[in-house]
Amino acid sequence: MTGKEYRTITDVKGPLVFLNKTEPVAFGEIVTLRLANGDIKNGQVLDTSDDLVIVQVFEGTAKINRETGVTFMGDVFKLPVSTDLVGRILDGAGRPRDGGPEIVADEKADIIGAAINPYSRQSPNDFIQTGVSAIDLCTSLVRGQKLPIFSASGLPHNDIALQIARQAKLKDSDEEFIVVFCAMGITAEEYNFFRSDLERTGALENAVLFVNLADDPAVERIITPRLALTAAEYLAFEKDYHVLVIYTDMTNYCDALRQIGAAREEVPGRRGYPGYMYTDLAMLYERAGIVKGKKGSITQFPILTMPGDDITHPIPDLSGYITEGQIVISRELHQQGIYPPINVLPSLSRLMGSCIGEKTTREDHKSVSDQMYAAYAQGRELRGLVAIVGEDALNERDKQLLDFSGVFEDKFLRQTRDEDRSIEETLDLCWTLMSSIDTKYLVRLDQKWIEKYHPDNRE
Amino acid sequence: MSNEGVIYRISGPVVTATGMSAAMYDVVRVGHEGLMGEVIELHGEKAVIQVYEDTSGIRPGEPVLNTEETLSVSLGPGLLTQIYDGIQRPLPTLEKEMGVFITRGVDADAFDLEKIWTFEPQVAVGDEVVGGQVIGHVQETDTIIHKIMVPPTVSGTVKSIESGDFNVTQTVCVLEDGTEMQMMQKWPVRTPRPFQQKYAPDTPLVTGMRILDFLFPLAKGGAAGIPGPFGSGKTVTQQSLAKYSDAQLVVYIGCGERGNEMTEVLDEFPHLIDPNTGKPLMERTVMIANTSNMPVAAREASVYTGITIAEYFRDMGYDVALMADSTSRWAEAMREISSRLEEMPGEEGYPAYLSSRIAEFYERAGRVETLNGDDGSVTVIGAVSPPGGDISEPVSQGTLRIVKVFWGLDAGLARQRHFPAINWLNSYSLYPQSLDQWFRDNIAQDFPEIRTQISGLLQIESELQEIVQLVGSDALPVDQQLTLEVARMIREFFLQQNGFHDVDAYCDIHLQYHMAKAILSFQDAAKSAMADGALLNDVVNVPARSDLMRGRFEKGYIDRIDSMVKKMNDEIADAVESN
Ligand SMILES: Nc1ncnc2c1ncn2[C@@H]1O[C@H](COP(=O)(O)OP(=O)(O)OP(=O)(O)O)[C@@H](O)[C@H]1O
Ligand SMILES: [Mg+2]
User: pLDDT for B309-342, tens place per residue?
Assistant: First the structure.
């Protein structure tokens, strides 16, 4: 149902258009705007009353004037969903970008998405092996988790995300993930990098891409991740797929939010971002999970770049308050030439406890992970001390730990971009590396695992 | 004007209606779908309503109906073991009605109105009863007797009283003036339930967490704030309190946090045993889950729903503990609504009334003499999530001004995997004075003195650490090196406690005392051995000491600890000779 066309625009401000009295317009209703030259723009109602309607225009308000015709489409924003989505590339507003046909809908789904009833959730506990040692050992990923990458500009977060997308699998299973990839304001070069990698590995056939690039309308970024998650929910909860959603870059998304807030003259929160940004981000991140009675799952891998490498910046800060841990990429390690430059110390997977151990990975996983972490943390700290007092002042234990921290980075963290280590390989590697430290200093290792796995005690 | 009006404006969760008579906090039904809302502001003809469900698709001109009731909770048998959303709709019922996604426009009774409970009368015909008086008992779960009370505003002479099986809406008692009473009653959430008087707290809420009970104890009826950056342990701490604290009832509010965390509690609690009663934990628990992606107005209401339920059980004479995770999300909900109302913002965009709302909320904690002369308490523990972990922000500051216990979580400790990551140098409790007598009488005469010694050692350690940073520890005299070792033992053996460990997650308060004494005993033994010529290194490394420290991971430690200490001390004494 489309209604009549209005020419009652009074004000245009940033991405917002203000209209005088119209027929009753629904909150959230979709709007099309027809410019004098025939171009069409799209928008959504942000505020509606008997006297005034405020519309947020996705494509920006350039060329909009009082002559622009405004039509209210009678419904909220919906995405046509069907399994035909798989293998397709769409733009940031859900239109084909690959020259293919329009999506033939099985149904249309509201892109805001309803909240999963907490009572209907099922606790995630299936270990996903990413083949990246640092992640598998220290911040194990669980199917149904939301685990962001906290990175910064110029760091290889895209390579890591792609490596995970390629290698992620359940241990002892060849069940594959469908990748839903959502680009928000990334450069064409970055996008091509993603696309060609997915193409090269054949993953594209099993993926859906929603793409809003740096030169696409900024406000459109508000809906792009919602489209991607709506597609993901359909595939996971209607069609039983295990879906891995990668979205990048959340920082651009948040900047678009800030832009709308400013245009509405809202009281800004920290650093100009809207006060409701926590809730807004939660409406995206919480769309991960597993629900009772459904076979599929949604695992989220958001990527964000921390402005100024600052983890207390509102974007990583609010994300960290919602997600189930974080993987932190380190500029320092990157500069040392280490790939993947994951700093395990501030990284965390909150769901790890439920997915590792005898039944899922290996009995010694927790013990090894704790010990590797502790030894590396102590070694790193000693680097600071050595800088002041010199290496000679260290006792034997500290010397071993200091050396270990280098080995940890060089042998454990470092791996190639197509090196897919099984969790057993990762754990065995840890034992080999830890054997450079006297057993008596390895206080976090259970004696029974030392007897079973320490190289001195194996054949 | 009638009780029916029409929608004038919709802006997110805030809807304005015209043409309707309304009073503040009236509950209204909005739009054709009848979404639940509450009047929060009046402007001449216009009533501003916060709506507890998603408003997209709603149009101006749709009807609004004023129910003329205030936002209330239903109170009665059936509350325990439930999980509700912010406005007391049971989530299992919503699942039945809507499937796994929460859509809107569904009403749900707070509990099964048909379920039959056995009512045992506690008054007889002709008795005078007053508000709050217990007229009957219902064994709601194995552990909890639900006491049916006269509503606070009612009194009179009992004309008839029933005994036997009834549902919660059937009349079980009639007064001479014709007032009928059922097992269910309602109470408006924004009004504290009345009591006779507040008492000064004198009993600790024993939590089983050493750093809390021993160094920073919370009183039953007290209030505590747990601020901390993301990932520092607010939720794990709150969940541990819900599991192990010696409250008789627990109200757990997941306010604007993760869905999976509520699922975890739901999965875990039915299988966990309350260490204080030996019964399943779920039987003493009521949960409220309004997660971060559920409507913000219902998030705003959720803390009131929770505390009203807590007060109701308090009025039966129970000790209730309430956890709110996280009060910052509640404050943010207030901020969002306030900004939609275009109110003049205070600090950081929060409404000017933020700190008074926080204070009013925590003031509903307390140990009271109930209307029926019993003694009950509500202890409130609120998590705070300061942006960037910086507690100079308004929610943290508003909380710290009112609570008497501050458990400050520390990102640095969490990164070192020192859990619970509570900073022992800046945390505090203002209760020790009023609780010391209890500790002396119930645990040990010298309990407060032992506490002072332990915290003194930690203080000295922090001063010595500053020197160590500059010159290294070898440069210190041996007695100070020993102090550092003792302090390390306090941190690693006593303060650290893995919230997920089968045995050590909960530590009996008597055992806590023995462990603290064991540390001081090590210090004494080491000092005297070193005075006799033993080397620090030998003293620290006696095998019995690591046995003692590891012992806490095994069951039955309390029976073994004294002999383990003795063995340690013997080995330390031997270190003199071996030298
Ligand atoms: N007492 C504890 N024992 C063991 N591990 C803990 C403890 N406290 C915290 N942790 C670890 O820290 C992680 C984060 O803790 P938690 O979820 O409680 O943080 P939070 O402060 O609630 O964070 P957020 O504000 O993001 O919700 C846990 O998943 C766990 O790994
Ligand atoms: Mg938490």
Answer: 999 999 999 999 999 999 999 999 999 888 888 8
User: What secondary structure, in 3-state letters, does B190-220 show?
Assistant: CCCCCCCEEECCCCECCCCCHHHHHHCCCEC
Distance CA B229, CA A321 (A): 8
Check if the beta carbon of residue A122 is closer than 8 Å to that of residue A291: yes
Structure-derived torsion over alpha carbons of residues A372, A373, A378, A380, reported in degrees to the nearest 10 = 100
Q: How is residue B546 annotated by DSSP?
A: H
- Rounded CA separation A296/A236 (Å): 4
Helix orientation angle between B447-471 and B432-442, rounded to the nearest 10 degrees: 120
φ/ψ of B137, rounded to 5, equals -115, 145
A chain contacts of residue B83, beta-carbon cutoff 8 Å: 118-119
Measure Cα distances from A375 to A435, A447, B36, B70, B456 in Å.
12, 17, 55, 59, 30
**Judging by DSSP bridges, how do beta strands A297-305 and A242-248 pair with one another?**
parallel
Q: Which of residues 102-141 of B touch A (CB under 8 A)?
A: 102-103
CA angle B505, B511, B515 (to 5 degrees): 95
Cα(B231) to ligand 1 centroid in Å equals 5
3-state helix, strand, coil in chain B (%, to 5): 40, 25, 35
The upper half-sphere exposure of residue B420, i.e. CA atoms within 13 Å in the direction of its Cβ, equals 31
DSSP, res A237: I
Atom of ligand 1 nearest to the CA of A322: 26
Closest approach of chain B CAs to the CA of A251, in angstroms?
17
Count other Cβ atoms within 10 Å, centred on residue B182: 17
Tokens of A396: 């034997």
Distances (CA, A) of A118 to A385, B94, B99, B198, B208: 48, 11, 12, 37, 28
Q: Is the peptide bond before A340 cis (omega within 30 degrees of 0)?
A: yes
* Model confidence, pTM: 0.94
Tens-digit pLDDT profile for residues B253-271: 999 999 999 998 888 888 8
Nearest to A158 by CA among A373, A334, A362, A390: A334
Task: Identify residue A138 by its one-letter amino acid code.
Answer: C
Neighbours of B476 (CB within 10 A): 16
Helices A157-167 and A188-200: crossing angle in degrees, nearest 10, is 20
At B579 the pLDDT is: 64
A269 chain-B contacts, CB cut-off 8 A: 348-349
* Cβ neighbours of B59 in A, within 8 Å: 24-27, 48
Amino acid at B62: E
Q: What is the pLDDT of residues B10-43, one digit of tens each?
A: 998 899 999 999 999 999 999 999 999 999 999 8
Pocket test for ligand 1, best of B232, B268, B292, B500 (most atoms within 8 A of CB): B232
B54, closest residue in chain A (CA to CA) = A114
Contact B194, B364 (CB under 8 A): no
Judge whether A20 is closer than 8 Å to chain B, CB to CB: no
